[in-house]
Amino acid sequence: MSEMTAPTTASIQEAVSRTTRPRVWRRLLRRPLAVAALAILAVMAGASLLAPAIAGDPNSFVAVERLLAPSGTHIFGTDNLGRDVYARTVFGAQASLTVGIVTATITTAAGVVIGIMAGMFRWFDAVVMRVVDGVMSFPIIVLALAMTAILGPGLGTVILALTIVFVPGMTRVVRSSALIASELPMVESARAIGAGGIRIFWRYILPQCTTPVLVQAAITFTTAVLVESALSFIGAGLPPNVPSWGASLSEARSYLTTAPWMWGFPGLALILTVLAMNILIDNVRDILDPRAGGR
Predict the structure, then answer these.
(1) All domains of the chain, ordered by start, with CATH?
(2) 15-56 residue pLDDT tens
(3) CA 114, CA 171: separation in Å to the nearest integer?
(4) What predicted TM-score, i.e. pTM, was given to this entire model?
């Protein structure tokens, strides 16, 4: 009986998975807010990829063009050093999205492996969760600031620091889902017929963690973008020669009323990126959540 249960359950789950993916996209595209969020993220991603082609040198400054209002020559105006705000905003998208995407990708990969192993092996869980609890006891911004202070400013340093900070949170989320999945009848049946740990990992437990992993990955992305901007705002993130939305907001502090375009456009780009990702993942979560009926 056990030998028949596991393959049958697996085949049913694979069939459901194949039919669910296109259905998610169809339902997502029927939601106006989700479509708007996708469009915003596509524009931001396109701008970051095409930054060298659609914007000039973000560090080039002309002293006589300081604090110019938006015009045909400088559509976003210029800053206090005569640099083009449009170029700095576009290249700032490149830096912020790179930090967010790379951090979320590495965090998700590491957190999924560690979290599922913790859910499958009790001895591993006892060791890893003590480390996770210790790291998560520190505020995110404080821990990230301490690591960047030790390693020095730089894009790689910020990504490394944020990855170390966010992996424990991803690990805890995945572990919770893995603990539930490891008790499912199909996993017990797979163990009964002698399925190996790797097969159980990939075929039975990992698919059960998809929704929480997607949600946590999106949260990691938005938080990484915000933390990178916060670190750059206080001068502890990216180096001065790398444009960043946070650095642009920091430079605009003395010109809040006299040159609102200095902080308005970078701030708007930051807000739209974070808001769009939150709206998108909320809609995806609602569609994938069976308790919501996939509405």
Answers:
(1) 2-292 (1.10.3720.10)
(2) 444 444 567 778 888 888 989 999 999 999 998 899 888 888
(3) 6
(4) 0.82
